[in-house]
Design goal:
The complex is a heterodimer. By secondary structure, chain A is mostly beta strands. Chain A has no helices and eleven strands. The termini of chain A are far apart. Classes of the chains: A mainly beta, B mainly beta.
Chain lengths: 112, 119
């Protein structure tokens, strides 16, 4: 199975400041169709996970444009340009290139 | 509005069985893969099982292979997860997750069903 490693595991951020989360894969996530299926999820307290970013850099429906994704191959990044109070929660990277899909350990975003 | 509603969770003894159901609404279930993902307390997320749109293709994680079975009834807009020979380590919140249309991934998640395996 592909292993996804996130860093940091905890990120205290000041409101209005940027935040960045890294996700590194144990092997290439390029699918045979040429796409790279690296996605990002947000899980707010008491809520199920919610899709934020798919295929590295595409924002899902309703996701604010302060969220952005980048990367290629085995190294990927989620960035929040200006953190808001509603962004508190745990962020996971997820690959869907092959079965089983696997998840990063999660990064807990909290406000300083 | 896309909705996925899980039911059937609860407390079961080790070695027992449970059947989770996921009722879909707001979209054409027959056009989507469906996945079950679990979140164990203090542990990470794990994709447990997946099923293709017509039910002919299924996959199960090694940790549940031979014990869990995923199935679907598109006419009833429902996907099932039959869980047998349950173990304490199967205790988790189980999420029903919709496979995306047009790209290889998942998008909408249900609220989850809690399964507790304990004597």
């Amino acid at each position: 199975d592909i292993v996804l490693t996130q860093a940091p595991l905890s990120s205290p951020v000041t409101l209005g400041q940027p935040a960045s989360i890294s996700c590194r894969s144990s092997q290439s996530l390029v699918h045979s169709d040429g796409n790279t299926y690296l996605n990002w999820l947000q899980q707010r307290p008491g809520q199920p996970p919610r899709l934020l970013i798919y295929k590295i850099s595409n924002r899902f429906s309703g996701v604010p444009d302060r969220f952005s994704g980048s990367g290629a191959g085995t190294d990927f990044t989620l960035k929040i340009s200006r953190v808001e109070a509603e962004d508190v929660g745990v962020y996971y990277c997820l690959h869907s290139t092959q079965f089983p899909h696997t998840f990063g350990q999660g990064t807990k975003l909290e406000i300083k | 509005e896309v909705q996925l509603v899980e039911s059937g969770g609860g407390l079961v003894q080790p070695g027992g069985s449970l059947r989770l159901s996921c009722v879909a609404s707001g979209f054409d279930l027959s056009s989507h893969w469906i996945h079950w993902v679990r979140h164990r307390p203090g542990k990470g997320l794990l994709q447990v099982s997946e099923i293709n749109s017509d039910g002919r293709i299924t996959n199960h994680a090694d940790s549940v292979k031979g014990r869990f079975t995923i199935s679907r009834d598109n006419a009833k807009n429902t996907v099932f997860l039959q869980m047998n020979s349950l173990r304490a380590e199967d205790t988790a919140v189980y999420y029903c997750v919709r496979g995306s249309h047009g790209w290889n991934g998942v998008d909408y998640w249900g609220q989850g069903a809690l399964v507790t395996v304990s004597s």
